[in-house]
Amino acid sequence: MDLFSEIEEPEREELKRLRKELEEANYKYYVLNMPTLSDREFDEKMHRLQALEAQFPDMFDPKSPTQHVGSDLGKKGFEQVRHKYPMLSLANSYSREEIEDWVRKLPSGVEIVCELKFDGLSISLWYEHGQLVKALTRGDGVQGDDVIANIKTIPSIPWRIERDDIPDFFELRGEVLLPWERFEALNKEREEQEEPLFANPRNAASGTLKLQDPKEVARRGLEAYLYYMLGENLPGKTHYERLTTAKEWGFHISDAIRVCKNVDEVMAYIAYWDTERKNLPVATDGIVLKVNNLAQQEELGYTAKTPRWAIAYKFPAEKQLTLLKEITYQVGRTGVVTPVANLEPVQLSGTIVQRATLHNEDFIKSLDIRPGDRVWVEKGGEIIPKIVGRADRNDEMSATPSLNDGMMYSFPDVCPECGTPLVRVEGEAAWRCPNEAGCPPQIKGKIEHFVSRKAMNIDGLGEETIDLFYQKGLLKNIADIYDLKLEDIAAQERLGEKSALNMLAGIEASKQVPWARVLFALGIRMVGETTAKKIARVYNNIDTLQWATAEQLCAIEDVGPQIAENIVAYFNDMRNLEILERLRQAGLQFEGEAAEGPQSDKLAGMSIVISGTFAHHSRDEYKAMIEANGGKNVGSVSKKTSFILAGENMGPEKRKKAEDLGIPLKTEEEFLEMIQ
Ligand code: IVH
């Protein structure tokens, strides 16, 4: 190295550092919506980088932040990447005997590391020269999806390790989790939106990690614990040392790791955590035992699916007997009457359970339970509490005969809220109150749904305010919202002029909410957010939708006969038409921005498979383009496939099938040319 380049070296380093810093800042700003630099700081760093790049033209890089505007990455499909080391699973055990059996097969005197078994999904993080470069899901164990844009939303995962003592490449594996608190908040939100609930935090974490929208992933708040470091030239001779090192390097490693010398110590660890885990912020379903010495691990090796040097011990599903004090009934916004078990409070996996859903009449009858029974409540695999059975009524300890002696359980035949006789639609398990326009929880529920975040997003009109306005006769339906006057609102206790003005501003802003969300907000039975979007894409204004027949509606993706019937019934109800007219007068968007039916027939009659990842558009965008040009996007390759829109890293199975059937592949450029 000559003298000049030695002098230049710090500046070249600065250039590289600034690129990374600005890239990171762009990502946080555009993708995560969490700016980390002020505009001024950002501009100053950008100017400095521009100056340095001008000084060192040999370091030109088209990927530099000076060469492109920040974009919200992560919109494209995930890239499939082969694991460097296969991602195996663990053999399970359930008892001391099974653990003893396993230990017996190990070299005598071996040390065993005990760790918590986190109940999420595994992730493999690749670090190259200290930089996080890939984050792979387990996939099929051989190759996984690179979900790095979503993983970067997890605050405890370092994007970069700035140390001299790290190998050029290493991999850290761990578990991605949605903490209990976040899980419960997410499900509450989904319940309000009538979206299907996640059964447990693991499903929620897995659904979240697959989203193509890192902003939404960031909002949900994933967490990760890391438990396994792999790679060449790593420091340490034991697993425990490696994890300690990883911790020093800044990785999130659980504190609950112990080196045990015998089965008694292992069992003591299990006993401790079986109780203590209930106080953890994340779900665990067992513990993992690993041989500590890495040379011994290597000697023990692997079976086809699992390492011989590790085993999982699974905690028994947590179940408790408690008294079913009473069955109450909840009426939802669509009139469905749900029976709720009111229980003698009982401690289950860290939370006190006093209510659990009984789903419907058939469920209660199948378990033959009635008030006064002692029932089993379970949080199996940490699921939302459910009733799984009842204790024998003849068992003295189990029942309170006075309460249920000789009485058969019967579901109410009138609405517990408004007294209207309930109806049960054939083929459905639910009883429903048909008094849509007069049943208080249905009226309030519809208004709550209408103003909710994913619908009209009207701030300041929460559950309590809606209840208050309903009591005062100010709100009887969704159209009344647009007649609210400043003086009416401000006259209510708790609501001053300031909040009244806020609320009115929110109401005014809602007039700009796009047609698809307005359609969702109307609360037509079974028309959720996604279905509403699909309908609005085909029917881009309310007038054409209003006259659509059930048969026509069924042609829309995801719309089955039941949903179609519900839509037709909605528009056949005069009361709804009156409300819609008032909303139209108020200025709501009853029309989409662009006609989104097929805009050309260039792909008419074609079945097209999309595979791989793309540079110019996301998969969803390509799907929309296919549909807009009269084609059909299908999931799997068959004789009928017209061609495959093939991106980078197309799945090997699809490629083989396409070759076998002689189906042509088109690149994205060729495709774009076709529909030009
Ligand atoms: S070690 C080759 N340690 O459990 C062994 N796994 O049922 C690699 N898991 O696929 C896994 N906590 O997703 C290990 N402390 C822990 C773990 C853990 C949770 C998961 C992991 C694995 C699954 C097997």
Give the tags:
single chain; alpha+beta; seven-stranded antiparallel β-sheet; five-stranded mixed β-sheet; about 20% strand; binds 2-(butylsulfanyl)adenosine
What report would you give on this structure?
By secondary structure, the chain is an alpha+beta fold. Helix 1 (3-31) packs antiparallel against helix 2 and helix 13 crosses helix 14. Mean pLDDT is 87; it is low at 72-76 and 397-404. 2-(butylsulfanyl)adenosine binds at residues 88-90, 115, 117-118, 122, 175, 227-228, 288, 307, 310, 312. The site of 2-(butylsulfanyl)adenosine has 14 residues, from strand 3, strand 8 and strand 11.
Brief characterization of the structure:
It is built from 25 helices and 22 strands.
**Largest beta-sheet details:** 7 strands, antiparallel
| Rg, Å, rounded | 30 Å
Return residue spans where pLDDT drops below 50 for at least 5 consecutive residues: 72-76, 397-404
Q: On the 0-100 scale, what is the average pLDDT?
A: 87
Query: What small molecules are bound in this structure?
Result: 2-(butylsulfanyl)adenosine
Strand content: 15-25%
Distance between the termini: 53 Å
The SS-based structural class is alpha+beta
* Count of beta strands: 22
**Number of separate helices:** 25
What portion of residues is helical? 25-40%
Shape: globular
